[in-house]
Design a protein that fits this description.
By secondary structure, this protein is mainly β. The chain is built from one helix and ten strands; from the N terminus they run ββββββαββββ. The chain has one helix at about 80-85, and strands at about 20-25, 25, 30-35, 40-50, 50-65, 65-70, 100-110, 115-130, 145-150, 155. A hairpin with a 2-residue loop joins strand 1 and strand 2.
Amino acid sequence: MAEFTVNPNRVDPYKNFKFRVRWDNHVVAGVSKMSALKRSTEVVEHREGGDPSTSHKSPGRTTYDAVTLERGLTHDPAFEAWANKVGSHGSAGAVSLHDFRKDVRLELLNEAGQVVKAYHIFRCWPSSYQAVPDLDANADAVAFERLVLENEGWERDTAVVEPQEPSFDE
């Protein structure tokens, strides 16, 4: 059973389908899928000279996986505009060094639309942009665009605490 201190009657964990992605202090329209926030720390093994049969393990370098955002294709230019700062056909591969990196904020929401957890993802930049998916005249699907963001780490926003959930009891 999940533990909730502010809402002790809640037993269900939060769902994964209510979330928002923000950059430049704006909610990015239409993001319907985001890959997991994942970090991995390398293991450094070493042995002591006096005890060659036992190895010890220490933490090494920590890396952060890229984050992939997907959304249905619209006229909102946010994905494409950011990807073009890293390089586009017309700019001869030039990079906008001034502002190609952005901090991104992920907000998870409960079923009532309240922010229940938030994460800051630091120094993101687009390493891959898919403007149009594979097209198939026989398919019955939404066209998605995709943006892959490299990042230099993330952390939870501890200022976001469990909100009092609304009650509709009379």
